[in-house]
Amino acid sequence: MYKILLATDGSENSFKAAEKAAEIAKPMDAEITVLSVAHDVPVFKGQEGLSYEQAVSLQKNMAEGLEKAAQEVVDNTKNTFEEKGLTVKTLVKKGQPADVICSEASEGDYDLVIMGSRGLGGIKEFILGSVSNKVAHCVGKSVLIVK
Q1: What CA–CA distance (Å, rounded) separates 3 from 30?
Q2: Does the first or last residue of the chain, that is N or C, have fewer Cβ atoms within 10 Å of its Cβ?
Q3: Is the confidence at residue 56, as pLDDT, over 90?
């Protein structure tokens, strides 16, 4: 069976990528997995006015918020696919998005990775880097970046 990994962050371009994934998957009866990555949150040691315990508590609250947001993104995307008569699996993982997407794409043996582009170009992309650019270079299978 043809397997598609849709990486999404809930952005407008991610929504466009989901639409494209549905368009591709439907006639192929492909298996779709929707992945959203909650960023790692560092502990803010030495932050002015915060004790270590307060910094750890702040980090924990931020991490929980990011995981909850990522879960909402995959749930909403899943609902969109189900409305189109498609069945999907969902994953929420923690880490650096490009690294997690590359790892999942490799470990899950997907045929195609689909994701949205943030639309960064030129010097901004060079300085900041982009998740889609990193994924396009690290995944050994086809990657579709939707604008």
Answers
A1: 6
A2: N
A3: no
How far is Cα 120 from Cα 130, in angstroms, rounded to an integer?
8
Residues near 69 by beta carbon (within 8 Å), at least 6 away in sequence: 10, 38
For the chain, domains (ranges, CATH) are 3-40+71-146 (3.40.50.620)
Token pair of 95, please? 């880490």
What's the Cα-to-Cα distance from 3 to each of 95, 97, 115, 143, 146, rounded to whole Å? 23, 20, 14, 12, 18
Two structure tokens written together for 136: 């396009």
> Tokens for 34?
């929707």
Q: Three-class SS of residue 134?
A: helix
Question: What pTM was computed for the model?
Answer: 0.87
Q: Which of 76, 86, 79, 98 is nearest to 24 (CA)?
A: 86
Task: Using alpha carbons, list the distances in angstroms from residue 106 to 101, 113, 132, 141.
Answer: 9, 10, 16, 8
Bin 66: left if φ > 0, else alpha if -120 < ψ < 50, else beta.
Answer: alpha
From residue 41, give the alpha-carbon distance in Å to each of 47, 95, 130.
Answer: 14, 9, 18
Output the CA torsion sign for 7, 142, 19, 125.
positive
